[in-house]
Amino acid sequence: MIAEVIVDVMSSEVDRVFDYDIPSSLCDLKVGYRVLVPFGNRKIEGYVVGIKDSTDCPKDKLKSVISTLDDFPVILEELISLMHYMKSSLYLRLIDGIRLAVPNQIRSNVKDKIERIITLDETKAEDFLKTVSKRQKNAPLAIRYLNDFPEVNYTKLASLFGNQTINKLIDVGVLVEKKRKINRLKLGEKSNTRKELTSLQLNAVDKILQSKERPIVLFGVTGSGKTEVYMNVIEKCLLDGKTALMLVPEISLTPQMVKVFSSRFGADVAVLHSALSAGEKHDEWLRIYNGEAKIVVGARSAIFAPINNLGVIIIDEEHDGSYISDSNPRYFTHEIAEFRARYHNCPLVLGSATPSIETFYKAKTGVYNLVEMPVRVNKQPMPNIEIIDMCREFKLGNTSMLSATMLEKLQEVVDNKKQAILFINRRGFSSYLMCRECSYIPKCTECDANLVFHKTDNVLKCHYCGKKFKPLTKCPECGSDSIKLGAIGTQQIVEQLENRFPDVDIFRLDNDSVTSKDAYSRILGQFAESKPSILVGTQMVTKGHDFPSVTFVGVVDADISLFNYSYKASETTFQLMTQVSGRAGRSEDTGYVVLQTYVPKNPVYLTCANYDYLKFYDKEINLRETTKFPPFARIVRVLLTSEDDNLAKDSTHKLIVKLKEFRIKYGKDFFFLEAMKSPVSKIKNKHRYQIILRFSNEIVDSVLKEIYDILDEIKNNKLSVFVENNPTSLS
Ligand code: ADP
Ligand code: ZN
Ligand code: ZN
């Protein structure tokens, strides 16, 4: 028999299937095994992705599999088909896919954690007690102890009665030692948290369970009880003997979700996210693989969990940017989820209070199903959102970053001994220049996109076409020379607040203060304990928190995400503002939100302040249609990287010449095509060039196929090529 093997080499050149003979000693080798194979004059790891009777490879060239590396197949057959699908649709290397399916912690053979458990042999213990000498005090005590607690950890017992005593008792057979595998990750106890569902929730559960033929969007306002719906759907799946996959955005949300899920489902839950230790990941992965855990709760990469027999896949806060992997391997979680849901013929739920424009468009046009929950479970009103015009504030002489209203509201919070959250909209967004008098922002003359300020080169650059402009010193609209760089630091705000409110506890939550795995929970824990207090932070403060005493939320610089160059800028801003506002007034006190902006009339803020997602959606979808952006077009970025600058440049040139040919062929279906140096022109000594294409949906399949074919020709072991569909970042 012949094994088809993918070798574990991160190179596009050898990213295909190689045939190896299966020796009779390995006759029960199966698909999915990790194996050792000869490759050139080395021995390397590989993965068996197929088994067949014969090969075209000549007999004298055919080598044999050397051995297997684990005693079970590490990749499910489903995930092998997924790898092939990802290669053909996303131009991912098979080996990249395999690395997603088989995490490091499995490949590097992290060991199980074994606990030594001591039990008592009662008959021997009785005999022993009859003959024991008076001087031996500890041994009878240890035996008595084990009469009360039948199973005790060795370390604990030894610390109580001494190593020597315990070892001796084991030697004579009075104590018996067993080895037991233990889970490194400790989850909370199961408790009864079940709630009687509202009629809207019951309806949602029904619709979801019926929606097997296509994904379903659960469009429910914050506080409408989506989590409760998810848990009821999962319960039904478990009753049917099936499993469930529940994805939540990045690490920040996971501890809370995990708590909610483990108190409902106990040990049926396994958790997968990047903040786990290697040992924890290893244990959780195996619990899922072995079928011990039936529910996986995790962040993006958990979509590749080795789970069988899926009954539902849920993507909570489906609009969240963390579902897009924007570095190699690049993929969009929803696409992977759709593949797995089709494979298992199970529902895929996309839940959000502010669905992404593309998702909602699919729901509106019947590609997805839709179920809505438009009211909060507790019938509480949403917090009032007040929009503050920062241009006006500046004209009135307030040059600081906090408006008079913001400071008044903070004073109220302090007087009432409540809590406030201030959001600095910074991480992950580029910086821009703006006029403080009239809020003019420089745009690209070619693309209608906001320009990005590159501080080191002191230029303004368009990230869609690469065109450069001189930074402003004077506003072309109103002549003012108050030009401001739109990016504020958390530290600056904290200092200002400390001066203003010297007796109030002020906490900071951003990438600089959250340096360790535990810092995040520690800071939030301290904040929860102190009143009055103010929490200042970046995107981290916007997600999932449920602090009942937070009555006020202030957004210091709403515009940063609005003026980002991405075509998703308005959408992201609407989502962020809605989400952060949802942190205020979650218990009996009504919440209040202040949103500082230089463009108070912008429809994004006006619709957001009215919680009018549908109106926002209508405006945005019209704009996308007229300007030909997704979902009405496809944007593709091809990224070419190499340590050899000339090679990368020449290959980019070759590619653009070919692409220009089929620009002619497709004519008006092609909206845009340009080659340029990437905004981040070098990473880890690799020079980066990119080609950006934008074209109509009608020609997506054929254009992609042609691009992939050309890439197959030009890539080599010195040049890597990557393809991204509708990228959100072009850096
Ligand atoms: P969402 O995820 O839609 O923002 P949650 O699921 O967090 O909303 O629910 C908001 C709050 O309402 C939570 O505290 C939850 O425990 C509570 N809740 C949800 N469903 C019910 C229900 N049927 N009866 C009572 N309380 C509920
Ligand atoms: Zn101006
Ligand atoms: Zn441009």
Could you characterize the architecture of this molecule?
It is a single chain. This protein has 731 residues and is α/β, with parallel strands linked by helices. It has 5 domains: 2-107, PriA, 3(prime) DNA-binding domain (GIY-YIG endonuclease), CATH 3.40.1440.60; 113-182, no CATH class; 199-373, Rossmann fold (3-Layer(aba) Sandwich); 384-429 and 488-623, 3-Layer(aba) Sandwich (Rossmann fold); 634-725, Alpha-Beta Plaits (2-Layer Sandwich), CATH 3.30.70.360. Helix content is 35%, strand content 24%. It contains 23 helices and 32 strands. A 7-stranded parallel β-sheet has the order 11-12-10-13-16-9-17, with helices on both faces. Strands 18-28-27-19-26-25 form a 6-stranded parallel β-sheet, sandwiched between helices. A 5-stranded antiparallel β-sheet has the order 2-1-4-3-5. The longest helix is centred in the last third of the chain and has 22 residues, at 645-666. The protein starts with a strand and ends in a 6-residue tail after the last strand. The mean pLDDT is 88. One zinc ion is lined by residues 435, 437-438, 440, 475, 477-478, 480. One zinc ion (ZN) is lined by residues 444, 446-447, 449, 462, 464-465, 467.
